[in-house]
DNA sequence: CGCGACTGAACCGGTTTCGGACCAATTCCC
DNA sequence: GGGAATTGGTCCGAAACCGGTTCAGTCGCG
């Protein structure tokens, strides 16, 4: 991790060199969970003497950390870590995957995929399209291997997600993919993935790719919606 | 490495031999990341004594480095490295937060929130609504404390997300919240959070809550869409 | 000698850091 | 309940430090 880069991101405004050192030191301790989430960190006066700087300098650093929602301060009480090092997917409940039903999953896909496809059609470069084409070729090469097919499908969707050039959107979709992998749905799907059905999907993805490659936004979006409805039907049929 | 060539490139104008040596020495340290990007380099006086030359010579060298956009100087503060050894390529696997622009974030919110609100209105229990009401009360108690307000806002959205009863959707939204926290957008927003604007938002959230509580799906969804459009305007105005 | 490069020093105005005092909120403990 | 201790919030002035500027002096070389 480039500390300098982290600093740049954390700081925003220009700040004294000593303050920057303190910011980096504290943020490092928080990231490393030396100061775990939701715990109180040492008092400003303690930190000042520990770090060998004045309290005002510590306070300036804490100002920055607070403005970044990394800590939260309460007068008379202390400063508390609010930063979550790893996007807390497994939370108080069980893992998300275990509690996400196939329907839940399809709902989220229904929300994300149309807009995702729209943005991808708009933002994908020729290079991206070429890359996507290769995945399509891989998909079309499959005959009966359901495992290979699912892997290819995943790759296809991932590339579309990246093609949006929206990292956050891509991450959301990645989350959906992972939940899908970890849930029982995969096993369920595999039962349905007969060679006949694989062929069917291949044709669909081919159509989708053509719409994307020809920059036909509306067709691509409509197609993915249609595809989702089909999936939904399938789920309701066999759930 | 062709020092002569480097010198030639850096110098442009003719410069004293000693100055050239200092330029080369400093540039070498910067390239080798002994002085990493965005860090302050030693003071002119320190450099002068370290390199065994006068401060004026150091300054002449720094003049050249500054004119080449390798460093940037701030009176009273210091000289800072702006040179990037690796012209930062957008790295796919870097932290999502670092690569997500405020617009990206708003786009994802625009995708998730309307459906999220719709599902929440349908699925929230009376107990959930009561809980949401408490958060609203907390929001309405805020007068000027922007930090507290943002924290409350977050809680409100989180409760709505949970209210969908779709763990995957809630996790996606959680991802968005965290990216927002960790990106520079928060600081940006806080500038706009005048007491006047806080009051404005309070009224909006009150309206939203009433729509949700009365199970008025369409009003709630339309309202959140409107809210998002407003946020978008704000971003474009002041970005 | 003259000229340009370099030196050393002083001074300026700005920024940053420091140390401390005082307040208000919270917590602790009797 | 109440006072003491602790914590963050605020403010201030002094001191240290920084780059910006100027200038008289020194050195080396043509």
TrEMBL record, chains A, B:
InterPro entries: GntR_C (IPR011711), TF_FadR/GntR_C (IPR008920), Tscrpt_reg_HTH_GntR (IPR000524), WH-like_DNA-bd_sf (IPR036388), WH_DNA-bd_sf (IPR036390). Transmembrane segments: none annotated. Keywords: DNA-binding, Transcription, Transcription regulation. The keyword Lyase does not apply. PROSITE patterns: HTH_GNTR (PS50949). Residues 16-84 form the HTH gntR-type domain. This is FCD domain-containing protein. The lineage of its organism: Bacteria, Pseudomonadati, Pseudomonadota, Alphaproteobacteria, Rhodobacterales.
